[in-house]
């Protein structure tokens, strides 16, 4: 069983205003999610029913941007906003990845939300999504509590 844990070795800013940059990026990310209709339950249902290319196009674009970003980070040795080196570690594929992916997909299809857009959905006034958010937090806690006894 191989686990990889990355730790932040620098001392984080304890001042509240040092965290504003993350809040601004999060708000901008949420606005993009809303404008691109990524948080739309109807768009998500279209995707799972294979009725529209919209979400597949967005996901494919995100994968392409991610691949390009990793390549650029490695090629130019780009550092984090705090000046730390960015490191990538090899991950071992296990049957637990399949189980987790299936469970994640079912949750996404049933609720119409994956973890990223949850906050944007709540921000647009869909407060019922708080139930999904609390469920995601509970699921993360359960995994952390029982991860050593789960198939990896």
Automatic annotation (TrEMBL):
Signal peptide: none annotated. Pfam families: Sulf_transp. Keywords: Membrane, Transmembrane, Transmembrane helix. The keyword Transport does not apply. The keyword Transmembrane helix applies. The chain crosses the membrane at residues 20-41, 53-73, 98-120, 126-144. This is DUF6691 family protein.
């Amino acid at each position: 069983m191989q686990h990889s844990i990355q730790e932040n070795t620098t001392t984080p800013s304890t001042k509240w205003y040092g965290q504003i940059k993350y809040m601004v990026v999060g708000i901008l990310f949420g606005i993009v999610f809303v404008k691109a209709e990524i948080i739309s339950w109807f768009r998500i249902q279209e995707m799972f029913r294979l009725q529209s290319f919209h979400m597949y196009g967005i996901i494919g674009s995100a994968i392409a941007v991610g691949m390009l970003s990793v390549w650029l980070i490695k090629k130019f040795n780009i550092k984090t906003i705090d000046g730390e080196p960015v490191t990538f570690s090899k991950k071992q594929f296990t049957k637990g990845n399949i189980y987790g992916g299936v469970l994640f997909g079912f949750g996404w299809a049933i609720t119409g939300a994956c973890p990223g857009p949850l906050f944007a959905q709540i921000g647009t006034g869909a407060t019922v999504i708080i139930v999904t958010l609390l469920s995601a937090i509970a699921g993360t806690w359960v995994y952390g509590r029982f991860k050593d006894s789960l198939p990896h």
